[in-house]
Amino acid sequence: MNETSYSEIAARHGINLESVKPASKDERLEQLKQILVSNEVPYPISPAEQVAYLSAAKTGRPFGIGPFGIGNRTAGGLPHRLVDLHKYANFQTYENYSFEEHLSWACLVADQQLTKHQYACQEYLDGESLFEIGGSTIPDFYLLNARIYQQTGWQLATVSEIIPAELFFTCHSQKFFPVTTFMRPLETDYLEEPDIGHDVAGHVATFTIPAVANVMKNHGLARDLIYAQRDTEIAKVAPDDLIAIELISQHADKLLAYAGRIYWFTVEFGLVMQKSSHPKSAKPGSIRCFGAGILSSPGETTFSVESEQPNRILIDPSNDADLLRLANTDYLISEFQKTYFISKSFELLDSLTPERIFHAAKTAMELPDYTWRELAPGDTVIDVGTECTSVNEKYWRLMANQPLDACLRRTAIHNLDLYASGVTPEQLSQFQTPPPAVPEEVLDWYRPFKK
Fold first, then answer.
1. Model-level pTM?
2. Percent of the chain residues past pLDDT 70, beyond the cut
3. Where are the beta strands (DSSP E) in 142-264?
């Protein structure tokens, strides 16, 4: 791409092309020195850790996992917190980024800033101001990691791609956040696979919202509960009973997937009612975004609050029925969400303990799911979207071989399997209000397939 094309792209996003110039290594090292010695922060870095950290940066060692207190620990991390990224371990070699990648960051962040300042909650904006996310070049993870640790106690861990849920939440339990090192193509708004524009420009500010950071860590601890239960169950069977061991392992993975839905609809795609008491709130009592999946996409940021297409449902995360609603809602990652859940407050979100997440996931596994297009009986509905479907529509469409998106098809089959096997009224009573009965005609049609 030539200089003229870059200039045109930069102009479309309000970027001064000359500002897309990363600092030299010496300049970044000087910045790092100033950051490391900061003491007026919640988590000061000890002098010994400062020396080790700065030494790693000076040698040009690519950034991998937050390396405070590396000493002889090749895995990095604080002495009491280590995580093994296995084959997914990756590194940021800052000098390898191209001008086009820096320009892509600058354009995306400029677009994000416009929508964030219009639709993000004030707590998110306050957090983002601590990390200089709005710059015109990709952040150097050495600098960013130091700031994140000082403000939140979290650290970055670079990965090569989307990692398995078990490893993702293992990182969370140790307050490491997995981040990729690649930047999406120029002028790409929404990306299924997380990149720096999502992991950094979307997530980092959320670490400073205590309730959200707690939800993230508590999902990691819920993961620990799930796999501790797995290990206990495996210990009860014969070591050579590979089938039983595999079934127990699959059950644990599925349980974590249900817990992951709670994470999806809060940390990734959550909205909140802005507190009227917040001193900087321009529009108290209004719906505002905090989910990183929303705020990393300028298009979805506007869509989540303004569009007539999605459903919007108000939830009280401290209510077990509302938490179960999240765990029993399936979704897709390939397009903007079709239902958003708005938490009444961050204080209520702070009720998501590891035990509650674990219990909700365990309960949800035994129940039929809702799709991302449906409203459930008992929902506190703020908006009914134009793409809303009835609970039973997916079954009729499946029976008639009509078009279904992957979420509706997957949910329809899952639910029909449950109903064909026999779902008891006691099970359904765990919902705040049970879903409508599946038409008997549909069940009669499906039962031969189940056999």
1. 0.92
2. 94
3. 155-158, 176-179
